[in-house]
Please model this.
Amino acid sequence: MLDKIGEPGSSKATLFELIGGTDNIRALVERFYDIMDSDPRAAELRAVHTADLSSAREKLFMFLSGWTGGPQLYIERYGHPRLRMRHMPFPVDEAARDQWMYCMIKAMHDTGVDEAVIEKMGAALWGVADFMRNREG
Ligand code: HEM
Model:
């Protein structure tokens, strides 16, 4: 499937499909928060989250399911994500953005996402993470 990226007729493959569907999105999000929870390089990002990450795990899973082109679980439950507004209570600066991306890229590698898909998803998510910034620095 992955070797068809960019080939005629394959342009409709969603990131959701390229990652391998619901179970793989779930595994990716679990790995993402496990990394955030344990890797010193993500310590500042971890510190702005609550001790219990289970709600964050569930919400990011639901969000990414829809954002990648799969079932719109987050929107069905919570309505429009309005992510920038929802992140206003948390300080998001360049360091937080970069730590978020570090965890996500590492999680994609750790869960076996294909390199071409990591690049595609990483670039798209970087735009979202950068848009979330609400503090200088
Ligand atoms: C592409 C980048 C990001 C995406 C897609 C994303 C996604 C999400 C989603 C879907 C939620 C749940 C929102 C809700 O319903 O309340 C959330 C919560 C949160 N996000 Fe992000 N986020 C991103 C970047 C960041 C960054 C850079 C920070 C750094 C401070 C951050 C910190 C938080 C915190 C603290 C919560 C609350 C978690 C909880 O429920 O306990 N996020 N994020």
